[in-house]
Amino acid sequence: MQERLMVETKPAVNYIRQPYFYDNWMEAQGIPIYRDYYIEDGRTLELGDWDARGHKAAFLQLAGQEGVSEARISEIAPGGRIAPVKFALEEVVYVLKGRGVATVWADGGEKHSFEWNDHALFRIPGNHWVEYSNMTGDVPVRLLHVNNMPVAMSTLQTAEHFFDVSVPTKSMVGGPEGDFFSDAQAIENDPSGRGQVRSYWVGNFFPDMRAWDKLVPFKGRGAGGTTVFVQFPGSELTAHMSVFPAKTYKKGHRHGPAYIIAIPSGEGFSVMWQEGKEKVYVPWHEGSIFVPPNRWFHQHFNVGEQPGRYLAFHPLPQFTGFAAENVDRSSDQFEYHQEDPTIRDYFAAELTKRGLTSEMPPEAYTNPDYKFENEKE
């Protein structure tokens, strides 16, 4: 007879996730940290004194962003500046409001300065110094910064390696290789991939996302919307901006975490929900910021009389939620005829409050193959 192996049983242990290293570092900075589904207006959000940096700032850790990407808002006082800081990681900066100058350089390299205004979008290369100055004497500047520090700090758990570290770095700005912040260029995309967008723009400086008009149809997402996909050269950071007409709305869809969305213009709301769970309604207008949580469906609605714009900063490709460009994504988007009717009712009610009526074509709700004009070949 086989001898039975006696195993001592122990009570189950309830493991609780410890804070990310980045969480502890962020808490230690002594400035406000906003944790919610959205920020109503980053231009007026209450900030705190960041003593280590000498300016006002706040961190955003919105639902769906945690542990993946950093978002923070910094303020430059009228006529003031943010002292030079060298950050090991690259980051993308969006100008919520104001006008100023950024000066960028590597150790021992040539300094390069460029001006920016409201709604500009630009990338600061990693391991370069940057100094920001406010060009106006009566209005503070507000900047939204996005980077991947939470992930980086999880792999190298020390803050000292990320700031003002002397590491030999070839300057990416100025010099004979051309202007790092020169005009963006259009690149044709291979339509055999996702098939929704046939071109994108490559560059490190976009002067005004509110006025950007080099757009192409965003096929398959509905509302007759258009878009620009942004690729920062030599970087895995990407973004896109969608523009869609007044009194219309986009199809519901979902993806991975940490898509940080800022609103350059328009008035509307977005609905976000985990499959089978209660819906969260997010009102937005110029300056609003929100993040759809990981794998939550979300849908964007324009209840104004002008086109709406939302600018989305993407996470690293590993977090997009898609294994490959050619994967079947049918379960990650639903068509208008498949949507929850209560969403449509909410949209109609919001329009009625403003004395408006929907511009959605009735056939979109009955014909599964309906295409808006700009989606047709």
**N to C succession of SSEs:** HEEEEEEEEEEEEHEEEEEEEEEEEEH
Structural class comes to mainly beta
The proportion of strand residues reads 25-35%
Helix content class: under 10%
Low-confidence stretches: 1-9, 323-327
Q: Quick check: average pLDDT?
A: 89
Number of helices: 3
Please give the radius of gyration in angstroms: 23 Å
The description of the largest β-sheet is: 9 strands, mixed
Whole-number tally of structural domains: 2
Shape assignment: globular
Entry keywords:
32% strand; mainly beta; eight-stranded mixed sheet; Jelly Rolls; 377 residues; 2 domains; nine-stranded mixed sheet; 3 helices; 24 strands; disordered N terminus
What report would you give on this structure?
The chain is mostly beta strands. The protein has helices at 21-27, 149-155, 341-353; strands at 33-34, 38-39, 48-50, 55-60, 70-76, 81-87, 91-97, 100-105, 112-116, 121-124, 128-134, 141-147, 185-188, 199-202, 205-206, 216-217, 226-231, 238-244, 260-265, 267-273, 279-285, 289-290, 297-302, 308-313. Strands 2, 13, 14, 16, 17, 18, 19, 22 and 24 form a nine-stranded mixed β-sheet that branches. Strands 1, 3, 4, 5, 7, 10, 12 and 15 form an eight-stranded mixed β-sheet that branches. Mean pLDDT is 89; it is low at 1-9 and 323-327.
Q: SSE layout and pairings?
A:
Elements: H1 21-27, E1 33-34, E2 38-39, E3 48-50, E4 55-60, E5 70-76, E6 81-87, E7 91-97, E8 100-105, E9 112-116, E10 121-124, E11 128-134, E12 141-147, H2 149-155, E13 185-188, E14 199-202, E15 205-206, E16 216-217, E17 226-231, E18 238-244, E19 260-265, E20 267-273, E21 279-285, E22 289-290, E23 297-302, E24 308-313, H3 341-353
Parallel strand pairs: 1-4, 14-17
Antiparallel strand pairs: 2-22, 3-4, 4-5, 5-12, 6-11, 7-10, 7-12, 8-9, 8-11, 10-15, 13-14, 16-17, 17-18, 18-24, 19-22, 19-24, 20-21, 20-23
